[in-house]
Amino acid sequence: MKAVKILLLLLILSSCKSKWEKTHPVVENITESVYASGIIKSRHQYQVFSKVNGLIVSIPVTEGDTVKKGDAIIHVLNETAKLNTENAALSAAYAAVSANTEKLNELKVNIDLAKIKLNNDSLLLVRQRRLWEQQIGSLHQVEQAELAYKSSLTSYNIALYKYNDLQKQLNFAAKQSGKNLEISTTQNSDYTVRSDIDGKVYSILKKNGEMVNTQSPVAVIGEAGNFYLELQADEYDIARIRLGQKVFITLDSYKGQAFEASVEKIYPIMNERSRSFTIDAAFVKQPPVIYPNMTLEANIVIQSKEKALIIPRSFLLEDDYVMLENKEKKKVVTGLKDYQKVEILGGLTTADVIMKPAP
After folding, report:
1. CATH value at residue 70
2. Smallest Cα–Cα separation from 283: which of 303, 258, 256?
3. Do 56 and 97 belong to one domain?
4. In this structure, what CATH number is given to the domain that contains residue 265?
5. What is the pLDDT of residues 89-136, one digit of tens each?
6. How far apart are CA 343 and CA 272, in angstroms?
7. CB burial class (10 A; 0-12, 13-18, 19+) of residue 297?
8. pTM exceeds 0.70
9. What Cα–Cα distance (Å) separates residue 6 from each residue in 10, 12, 37, 119?
10. Longest Cα pair distance anywhere in the chain, in angstroms?
């Protein structure tokens, strides 16, 4: 009976002892980083929208095609726009100053005739006044000559006014009709959806014969072969992220490999729904084959240190305590942390043995 009790006691002691893991601090490198998720995007990637509503009549490109800035992506039915443009062209031609030279020439003839009569009446007035000064003729004749001169002067001024006024009207009508033609031509060009960049067509979101509107995208275009990372970082970590920090990413398409990037832009507004900030990062060396919208996981390196005193993070109690081998809790000063390790700045040496209770 006594032997059985001793055996049970040994088993209990052995069981209790097995619940405690032991380790000691070691000197090695440590890197502190923050986690971010994200996707790969093409440089200058954007969704293409139509400026008008209508029916697609042709799509001259397919996914994977490279395009130049201004190349057509989609053609929308525009018969009404064509007719409006033709009508505006007719109006512009009719209102052109060159098409109304006959009207101007007619008024020029009237001006010339009025000027001839004015000169003639002026000479008659001067002659009549000289005669009157010599007591030849009558005052009534002088007055009649003055009246004829004033009438000719008025007629001449009216002829000039009519000519200048017609010229202004023609110039205004020509400019107005020209602008209407420009507007109509621009509206007509809106029925052809074009690329804004030199790039690659990554997606066509509509089919021939479907309707398009100004609210829904019709295609996705971006630079060919030039990609960057769009990351989402938690608001609790954003204050520690800076431009130029290293980023190490992993992709499902490249299992077991990590690729280096660098933070190039931090957007200064938080997404209220996800409570995260958007960060752009550029590849240091781009993977050989990648595509837009591939998902990734990233670690943004905040700081790193060589030859640091390190313990497993799981051995840390209450953030700044450890359990010594003699079951004594000891306060420590911590430094850098990653997901598995923590730096000890004070309170332990490599000779110390620490313990971690089993969960």
Report:
1. 2.40.50.100
2. 258
3. no
4. 2.40.30.170
5. 666 666 565 666 777 778 888 888 888 888 888 888 788 888 878 887
6. 34
7. middle
8. no
9. 6, 10, 57, 148
10. 174
